[in-house]
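Exercise 7b. Backbone tokens:
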């Protein structure tokens, strides 16, 4: 049994859904369970309609709902010949009626609570899963639309509900096993679930990947396929560096490092349920079904290459915090970090000396209030328009000469390094440079680190690092 998840662009119109049917058909022998997102941009449009209604603009809200109705009905009519369309139409129309009623209610009350928001957003995935399931049936793929609100049980933290894993696994098994036994393809909406009492919830924007991972783990899938509109994960941003290549295999830890340092990849936290059960996750391109894609797994057997990928995170600000008398008093670091924490500002890199602490943070989160709070007890200066470049690879562990090589490349690109971090995670060397220097630094690094033949110049220390606990004992 496998789980196949198709994102919004993979189901955005009838042509895209045709491709999905072909792809699923090619895997029919493996008992696929299909998870779909809402059609591209639908979740945003539902939110916009909800906002218009909450602002009291009922006409605008209903206009947006009418446009959504039109788009879904035309996709359905293009996909489903005659009677098949008429068979599905009542189910779609009843959802549009519910949507209209909900928006009218919101407009009357001038209030859109998180709970109503989730009810509103659930229409996107309910509609797309209905249409995709019907499209499969007329293409010789016997399918069954399964309402995810009956299977994915969550707590009541609306708009970012936490799944109840055990209850979900029990419900899913009970609901899907009989369908799979009859060789039906279950089609479910991602992102949406319900509380135990049956109130609709959502598990956070972009949550369909998370749904796929939860379903895959609950059903002990052989693998999970995440179908998107890119070839897979790349060695660096191809817009930045034309030499970027597809990563065929990557470990979960590497993918997590890349995501936290700005790579626009599938967020690995969403894959955790699958990875914990050692279920491989493939990222594939629904526009190029024959492409290799990227396989994310718990452990990737070593290859000789020290580096898996290079990520760059722009919009970074360096904040320098100095003690008022030219030295750092006791407890200073704690006090400084507490201020960042209070303002929910994530600190990406920290360096400290006797006289000051330097922190690299996301520019948007280091607001004037945070800086004012620091200035109550410290001297503060900022350096905006910086970027963090991260070189990531499990084979960086214990690799002699790699740091020299990385910084040699950056120097050769004529770029100055402002901060360095290595060691916190042994699989990542990160440094801060000016934002404008990112293209030059990344291109040069990618060229030097990925052009074949370069690799042999690194010496590998075969001895693993020994970690000891605070008492000096090996761990
Ligand atoms: N439709 C939802 C969203 O746009 C969930 C998803 O696409 O993953 O956030
Ligand atoms: Mg998505």
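Sequence design result:
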């Amino acid at each position: 049994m496998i789980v196949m998840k198709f994102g919004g662009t993979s189901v955005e119109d009838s042509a895209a859904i045709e491709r999905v049917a072909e792809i699923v058909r090619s895997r029919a022998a493996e008992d696929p369970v299909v998870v779909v997102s809402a059609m591209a941009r639908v979740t945003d449009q539902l939110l916009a309609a909800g906002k218009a209604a909450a602002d009291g603009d009922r006409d605008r809200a209903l206009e947006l709902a009418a446009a959504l109705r039109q788009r879904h009905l035309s996709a359905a009519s293009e996909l489903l010949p005659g009677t098949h369309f008429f068979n599905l139409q009542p189910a779609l129309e009843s959802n549009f009626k519910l949507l209209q009623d909900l928006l009218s209610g919101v407009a009357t009350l001038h209030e859109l609570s998180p709970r109503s928001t989730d009810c509103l957003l659930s229409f996107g995935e309910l509609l797309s899963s209905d249409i995709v399931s019907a499209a499969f049936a007329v293409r010789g793929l016997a399918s069954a639309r399964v309402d995810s609100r009956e299977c994915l049980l969550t707590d009541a933290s609306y708009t970012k509900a936490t799944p109840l894993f055990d209850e979900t696994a029990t419900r899913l098994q009970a609901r899907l096993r009989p369908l799979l036994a009859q060789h039906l393809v279950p089609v479910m909406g991602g992102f949406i679930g319900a509380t135990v009492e049956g109130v609709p919830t959502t598990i956070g924007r972009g949550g369909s990947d998370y749904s796929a991972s939860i379903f895959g783990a609950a059903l002990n899938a052989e693998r999970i396929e995440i179908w998107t509109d890119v070839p897979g994960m790349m060695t660096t941003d191809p817009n930045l560096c034309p030499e970027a290549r597809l990563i065929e295999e990557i470990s979960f830890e590497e993918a997590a490092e890349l995501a936290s340092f700005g790579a626009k990849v599938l967020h690995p936290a969403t894959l955790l349920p699958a990875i914990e059960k050692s279920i491989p996750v493939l990222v594939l391109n629904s526009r190029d079904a024959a492409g290799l894609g990227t396989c994310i797994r718990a452990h990737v057997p070593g290859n000789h290459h020290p580096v898996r990928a290079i990520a760059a995170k722009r919009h970074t600000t360096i904040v320098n915090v100095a003690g008022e008398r030219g030295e750092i008093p006791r407890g200073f670091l704690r006090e400084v970090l507490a201020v960042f924490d209070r303002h929910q500002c994530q600190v990406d890199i920290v360096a400290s000396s006797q006289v000051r602490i330097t922190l690299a943070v996301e520019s948007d989160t280091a607001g004037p209030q945070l800086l004012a709070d620091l200035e109550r007890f410290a001297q503060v200066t900022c350096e905006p328009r910086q970027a963090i470049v991260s070189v990531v690879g499990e084979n960086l562990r214990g690799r002699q000469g790699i740091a020299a090589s990385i910084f040699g490349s950056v120097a050769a690109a004529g770029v100055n390094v402002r901060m360095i971090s290595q060691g916190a995670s042994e699989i990542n060397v990160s440094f801060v440079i000016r934002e404008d220097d990112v293209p030059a630094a990344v291109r040069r690094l990618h060229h030097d680190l990925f052009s074949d033949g370069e690799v042999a110049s690194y010496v590998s220390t075969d001895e693993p690092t020994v970690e000891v606990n605070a008492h000096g004992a090996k761990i």
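Instructor comment: The CA atoms of residues 191 and 206 lie 7 Å apart. Confidence is low (pLDDT under 50) at residues 453-462.
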